[in-house]
Amino acid sequence: MKLEKSNIYKLLEEKMLSYKDYADIRIIPEEDEIGFIPVHSSAVLSVNPINDDTVRFTKDELLLRSAVADRLYWAGQELKTMDRSLRLEIVYGYRALGVQQKLFDEAKEALVSEYDMEDELVEATHRRIAVPDVAGHPTGGAVDVQMLRDGILVEIGTPVWDFSRDAFTFSPFITREAWENRQLLRRAMMAAGFAPFDGEWWHFSYGDKEWARFYGHPGALYDQVAVEEVHTRKDVGILS
Fold this sequence. Notes:
Low-confidence stretches: 232-240
Number of helices: 8
Oligomer: single chain
Mean pLDDT: 90
Shape: globular
């Protein structure tokens, strides 16, 4: 029996984890965690922020947890090993918790007329914008990335932050080249310890609740952090 395109998307979506899968995951902080650091371009990484919703609070720096930044360099090296012409590009990192809340509230309001049950509304909203108490970006553990080949964006099916269903990592409705590039990116990021989110080919995380759930860890390493806390933490050298 031939499946309709919409049904294939639905099957892919059903495999993705939901808010309830993350809600009860506890935080078990790393004992030697040193906080947030700015990520800079290097031989294996390009840093190109695509949104200023948080960087305007953080002196135009793209911030991540230090362990996450280290693993990005690892992922960049992994890509170079696979293909010397490739370079990992980081386009988004830490998001202020207040920004996450605002985005979630707006998305929820746009859907409120479609759902009678609050839990169904929350889950539907979460598929668009993560519920703040489980969201990865406000932890400093989630990143949005893409790939360059000889300085030019590779074909990967959709632009980053295109939230159509063809942004699902395993959408079968993209070119073979785009499919192979997505899998290459996924392999490099997972080799560095990141967890993929298959609803957005560009989104990966380390240390947040999504990472803990994906790999079966007893808890997440990082909690959400308000931008005011980032500014006052002594271990954030660029902001102290």
